[in-house]
Amino acid sequence: MNFASDNWAGxxxxxxxxxxRANAGFAPAYGGDPLTARVTERFAEVFEHxxxxxxxxxxxxxxxxxxxxxxxxxxVVFTSGEAHVNADESNAFEFQSGGMKIIGLPSPDxxxxxxxxxxxxxxxxxxxxxxxVALSLTNATEWGTVYAPSQVAELSAIARGRGLLVHTDGAxxxxxxxxxxxxxxxLTWKSGVDFMSFGATKNxxxxxxxxxxxxxGLFEGMEQRRQRAGHVFSKARFVAAQFEGYFxxxxxxxxxxxxxxxAERLRAGLRGSNRARLAWESAINEVFAVVPVEVLxxxxxxxxxxxxxxxxxxxxxxxxxxxxxxxRLVTSWATESTEVDTFLALL
Length: 347
Description:
CATH topology of the largest domain: Aspartate Aminotransferase, domain 2
Structural class: alpha/beta
Mean pLDDT: 96
Helix content: 25-40%
Order of helices and strands: HHEHEHHEHEHEHHEEHHHEEHEEH
Shape: globular
Number of helices: 14
Largest sheet: 7 strands, mixed
Radius of gyration: 20 Å
Number of domains: 2
């Protein structure tokens, strides 16, 4: 019963097989190898659009390097108050950008409220001391919710009205695509997204993230930024190999779909329980629930894992009461239905 994080799961067989294939023989270093070129072409196929791609080893690097590529004095980036780039990355963006600022926006279910974004922009008028440069959306969100293409388009239109670029943090992008049924293109450039951080690690890669720009020429000096940040890999073919295995035969969406399905199995069981309840409805492989304290103890006693979650993130009428605790349950490509059923049996 390991529901701690999809980061705890290993790499998929497809990714490991691709790494093994790439391990044979010699290849040019620093991304000059044929596999890196092929994978870049594969990104263009996945998104149905010309793209520029830069590999990184972590999502934090992809977020901070891509957003800092827009660096200018007084620069401001708007995002959800709960966004990973704002709350969990130790000011990496501010460091890489040399002092640009993040402003967190109201996002009661993880998704930015369009009216709140529009209102925030009025507090940073043209010609002021701060310069709005970008909007960053997380899809899927840290609350397990997703933006549909229409919601991305609505926020993008507000951003474009002030000349801002739009970024997507796609740490769980595969889960968002699988949950919405939209195409990668529909969730990104077709809805106004200019660039994104494309995550594969949470969905079965070993360590593979990428900056993907849908407007070639958008980032001047990205190679130098990446080098300075220590994310230019000598044996870059091994990052490319992970993406090769990740995309092969649609494996990334099959694996994300499985993780989502295991989470829905959890949600269905929680909906039918008289001892536990969902803190809110989610759409991907993250489930937020209120359970008896003894259930959390039983999971841990059995060698399982899950994380407690701040109670105040739930609506007041859904928060834990006496003898209860709020938890986050995260499924992965490797989660088995027996793990889910074992947990639900405790309820």
